[in-house]
């Protein structure tokens, strides 16, 4: 590594790239250090959904909307594919339809409940049998996470002068110097955005953070000619996202799921689908929590996901071209964790499954607070 920097960001996943963007926009000399030849963690193993609709009203939803605004500036400027296709939650039971209507009635976000005929007219891939309604939100945008994470570094280097050091591991930070496998470099600040690997550089802060690991299983289809027209979610998703938590009917829906679909609850399964530019449909997912999550995938989980998907979506001749699992860090109650493990050091992680949705808005906030904290204390 060469000359010194005002800030070094550790990790080239979406949260690290977002912090590098906001630091550089403030006029700082910024470097990003990534230990792998390319980022390969949770940031490339997701649906590519920029998904404000799932966030609870208030701070989290506003942060998601701010993040989306930044994405809408960055994506066209970087020449990256994106589809402002919105989202559709499909209801196949009366109680699910009631939750959708309760959610829409609050009126705090742009969405509408469509009857069954309207759903099928606009989105012909949705199954007609048993369909009751759908909640359409125009806000959500789809990206290809593999493309975004692979190509944003070149954009940040070209447009904002961010330096990237791939295949380089940060070993430590002390007295304004970052020690790496590529040598030592002067840096006024260190920002750690290493996801579940947060503990490697800040073990004490990680131990005190309350974070847990979450493993999920996902799949991707072979390219399909027909377009879904939107990103889709089934009824199980209603109890997964906090945006629906305040709906009065949701507890009854969750109780029915537990009675009728107990295996889905045991594996933390809810089912969603997005489609990228190539026509591949990304399908998932499951949620298993704890440090002892297995490195081995369970084919039964994939079967359950696909069975539920086929219940609300017609994908004739579906061929699964890829299967994988991802692991991310999540806090049981907080939407993210921001720690100050040492003077001049900020660690941000724990965005869970909302990394694509929250990262640019969250990074804007944490960068503002970090740069404004001249005392650089150790409080969180």
Can you tell me about this structure?
The chain has 380 residues and is α+β, with helices and mostly antiparallel strands. The protein has 2 domains: 5-44 and 146-209 and 334-372, FAD/NAD(P)-binding domain (3-Layer(bba) Sandwich), CATH 3.50.50.60; 87-138 and 212-330, D-Amino Acid Oxidase, subunit A, domain 2 (D-Amino Acid Oxidase, Chain A, domain 2). The chain is built from 11 helices and 20 strands. The protein has helices spanning 14-25, 59-78, 94-105, 116-122, 145-160, 198-201, 203-209, 250-260, 262-266, 299-312, 355-372, and strands at residues 5-10, 30-34, 49-50, 82-83, 87-91, 111-115, 133-137, 141-143, 163-166, 170-174, 177-180, 183-192, 212-221, 231-233, 272-275, 281-284, 288-289, 320-330, 337-342, 345-349. A hairpin with a 2-residue loop joins strand 10 (170-174) and strand 11. The chain is globular and about 65 Å long. Residues 6-366 form the FAD dependent oxidoreductase domain. It comes from Urbifossiella limnaea.
